[in-house]
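[recover] target loaded
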């Protein structure tokens, strides 16, 4: 067994409740319109994803999971235009994994 396998850290997971708390703070004492509610929802999800240090998951039941992951550095990536080797540092990326209901819908044939 590798030594790094047993030291794997748990990824911080946020849920729909965390988004609700963030939205409640944004609308405290303000009138809510549909546009403001939708904008605040996406702003809250974006702000929560940006708190990732280094990994984070936002799990929304019956919808899916947003994850922030760290990529590995690539010391020998190639610039396709010039052919030269370049170093690409590690960075964060966002990944979405559809939930069960959404996956089932997407698997249906188009016919």
């Amino acid at each position: 067994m590798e030594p790094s396998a047993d030291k794997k850290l748990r990824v911080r997971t946020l849920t729909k409740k965390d988004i609700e708390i963030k939205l409640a703070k944004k609308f405290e004492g303000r009138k809510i319109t549909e546009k403001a509610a939708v904008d605040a929802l996406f702003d809250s999800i974006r702000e929560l994803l940006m708190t990732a240090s280094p990994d984070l998951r936002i799990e929304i039941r019956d919808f899916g999971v947003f994850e922030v992951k760290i990529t590995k550095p690539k010391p020998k990536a190639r610039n396709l235009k010039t052919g030269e080797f370049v170093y690409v540092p590690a960075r964060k990326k966002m990944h979405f994994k559809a939930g069960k209901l959404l996956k089932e819908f997407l698997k249906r044939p188009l016919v």
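[recover] notes: Strands lie at 12-15, 56-60, 64-70, 74-78, 85-88, 92-98.
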